[in-house]
Every structure is written in C-alpha cells, then in structure tokens.
Amino acid sequence: MNKYLDKMGYGIGTRLVEDFLAQSSVRRCHSYSEVTHIIAEVAFKMYLGVTPSVTCNNSSRNEFSLILDKNPLSEFVEELPAGRSSLCYCNLLCGIIRGALEMVHLAADVTFLQDKLKGDSVTEIGITFLKQPEEKKYRRKK
Q1: Domain assignment of residue 94, yes or no
Q2: Is residue 14 domain-resident?
Q3: Residue closest to 130 by CA, chosen among 106, 113, 112, 111
C-alpha cells in the first residue's frame, strides 16, 4: 500500500509542477537549499496551507528534512487501522515531491522519516538530491 501511495503521489507531482510554475512567481533556483525552501515556503503553503521548517542534514548540502508540526493528510486520522501499523499516509507527499522534482530535472530520493501517527514528536520528510546540478552556460550565436 505504501508503494501504491508513493506511485499515486508521483503521478500527481508530475502534473502539479506545471500548475505550480504557472501560479507561483518563483525564479530559477541555484542551490538545493533554495529548491527545498521553495518547496516548503511556497508549494506546501499553496497546496496544503502549512509551512514546514527546513533543516539541512549534511555538510555537502544535498540532504534536507521538511518538518511538519501539523500534517493535513493525517488531521482526520485518530490512529492507524489495526494490522496496518506500517501504513504511511505521507508516502503520497513523498511521491508528489519526487515527481515534481523529476519534472524540473532534479533527481531526488524522498522518504518518510517520522510520523506523529506512529508516536513520533513530528512528521518529517527527508529529501536527498542524487546528483550535482549541471551549470549550463548558453551562448548566443552571432
């Protein structure tokens, strides 16, 4: 079920990125830190009405965590169903983020790290960018 939620989210993310780019006035990002802050401060606010905090998890600045104090996906869920303790509703969000990033040519591994529904203090989504961005310099032909 978790893989299916991720797959559904991926499909949503690949379509949602077009709407996001059309409706937001974001400019080109020059670092993974900028990308992650745009996801947290613009995209989450625009589509879910919440703004997660962002932390960087390593010195190479390619691993980040989005920490949600309030998770709209689990707002109406009291507890996980019996026998479904491994279910992660937020895998939908992971798929959305991964799909949207892929559509703008950023390969990333997006995983669900902590869940308030499972007794953790916060809901945390981890984003690890998989390759360094290529600086493309275009020259005008004369």
Answers
A1: yes
A2: yes
A3: 106
The DSSP-derived string for 75-119 is TT-SSPPTT-TT--TTHHHHHHHHHHHHHTT--EEEEEEE-GGGT
Q: What is the CATH number of the domain that holds 33?
A: 3.30.1380.20
Q: Does residue 135 lie within any of the structural domains?
A: no
Chain length of the chain: 142
Task: Report the pLDDT value the prediction gives residue 81, as an integer from 0 to 100.
Answer: 61
Domain count, the chain: 1
pLDDT tens by residue, 62-108: 889 999 888 777 666 666 666 666 667 778 889 999 999 999 989 99
Name the DSSP class of 49: S
Residue 30: phi and psi, rounded to 5, are: -110, 0
Residue 141 exposure: Cα atoms within 13 Å on the Cβ side: 0
Distance between CA atoms of 43 and 30, rounded to whole angstroms? 17
User: What whole-number distance in Å separates Cα of residue 18 and Cα of residue 24?
Assistant: 10
